[in-house]
Amino acid sequence: MTALDHPTHPDDTPTRIPFPTVDEIARHCHQSAEPETVHIEVHLPGPVDPERLRTAFTEALHLHPRILMREAPGPWYRRRYEWELTDTPDVEVLTFTPPTRDALKQARTRSLTHSPPLTASPPVRLEAIALPQNTGSAPGTGTALVLTVNHTALDGPACLRILATAAERYGGKDNTPTAPPTRPPDTPEPPADAPSVWTPPARVAPGTPDPSPGGNGLLLTELPVPRRPKGSPYTVNDQLMVTTALMIAHWNREHGAHPRPMRITMPVDDRPRGTDMPIGNGTRLVEVTFAPGELANAPDHHMGELLHRTADRTRALKALPRPQLGHGAALLTAPVVPVTWRATLTRGLRRAAAPWTSTTLLSNIGRIPYTLDFGDPAGQAHAVWFSAPARMPRGLTVTTASTAGKLHVALRWSRTLLSHGDGAHLRDLFEHYLHATEEHPT
């Protein structure tokens, strides 16, 4: 079903779509203490007109009707969860927050702690906050758009597509996505030196747990996009992968953790970015591994070699065909027994497999392919952040995107593992090692 299909049958019976594998696994493992939300934050240099934005966002929802959905009710013995598509939103999706001193901070907190329910269409919420003078925008003119997404239903790139359509409807400016950058050809086989994926990986060492009850903490920062030699075989994504691994290795050494292989989950998204982009959870997950020796205490002398090996691994993993969550998840969601029985089994297996869960997740959205130009006076987005859920046992995720030559980095952590001070230290380590990836011998 494409983005422009009509969501109902001719007899007006709502269309029902069985939960895909990713949605069902997420639905089984829902946990209210640490909601699985995706947070997207877009900063505009000027003000927005409330009614005009409301109209534009509503039109965008109708132009991508796959987002207008809710979980359909059903008996306990049903074999599938199903999405029910709706003609209109069930709830008011967009709210406008007065420009108080802590309005943006509070909106971010809500985005991490309050997940839009699956029972009301659509499972997203958008807040528009007028930015006061102390946020870096011109006095009284800036706007932050904070989009909260229930990750059981949708992912960040799909909702960014919705925002791009809303920008086009609001400002009348073309938001045709730019062509993706050219990449070296992918290799079909993983390099022989890749560490085994069967060894339990390192965990992020506990810091000082936040006294706040449960949930996730968040820190956003803006850095220059790292430089790399022209024609180098590795990409900015590879630099970010190495940076994340070295950051955690450094943190773990400081906290006395025994060296173990590092395993970093990396979402791969092959969907088109036009108006026909499939809306939902469309990324597949691969895992990039590092041996303890590769992340030794003084890696500067072999940084170039580490970047090249990482590039070989990421290209090979991207090229290998694989279901979104692996073959095991596809078996778990086969509709052969009632879905409630599968839910119990899935949660049990998740707990049993916790020691083998990857160390962290690095989600690099890359260069934002849309201009996100809302026209005068709102203007074109000059900063876009994403943050991915950081439930235990990982407890830490890194999400990056680039806009206008800047790298926008979000560190998100479980408050049972780290505090805001820990997050600030990890940010400093990330900046240090990102800069180190630029200074290796060519």
List keywords for this structure.
single chain, about 450 residues, alpha+beta, Chloramphenicol Acetyltransferase, 2 domains, six-stranded mixed beta sheet, five-stranded mixed beta sheet, 9 helices, globular, disordered N terminus
Question: What is the structure about, briefly put?
Answer:
With 442 residues, the protein is of the alpha+beta class. It contains nine helices and 14 strands.
Written overview of the protein:
- This protein is of the alpha+beta class.
- The protein has two domains: 16-171, Chloramphenicol acetyltransferase-like domain (Chloramphenicol Acetyltransferase, 2-Layer Sandwich); 216-365 and 390-436, Chloramphenicol Acetyltransferase.
- Helix content is 28%, strand content 20%.
- It is built from nine helices and 14 strands.
- The strands form three sheets. It has a six-stranded mixed beta sheet, sandwiched between helices.
- The termini are far apart.
Number of self-contained structural domains: 2
Order of strands in the sheet with most strands: 8-14-13-11-9-10
Mean pLDDT over the full residue set: 88
CATH architecture of the largest domain: 2-Layer Sandwich
CATH class of the largest domain: Alpha Beta
- Secondary structure tally: strands: 14
Layout of strands and helices, then pairs:
Blueprint: E1 16-18, H1 21-28, E2 37-44, H2 50-63, E3 69-71, E4 82-85, E5 94-97, H3 103-113, E6 124-130, E7 143-150, H4 156-171, E8 216-224, H5 236-254, E9 262-268, E10 284-290, H6 303-319, H7 327-332, H8 339-352, E11 360-367, E12 383-387, E13 396-403, E14 406-414, H9 420-436
Parallel strand pairs: 5-6, 9-11, 11-13
Antiparallel strand pairs: 1-4, 2-7, 2-12, 3-4, 6-7, 8-14, 9-10, 13-14
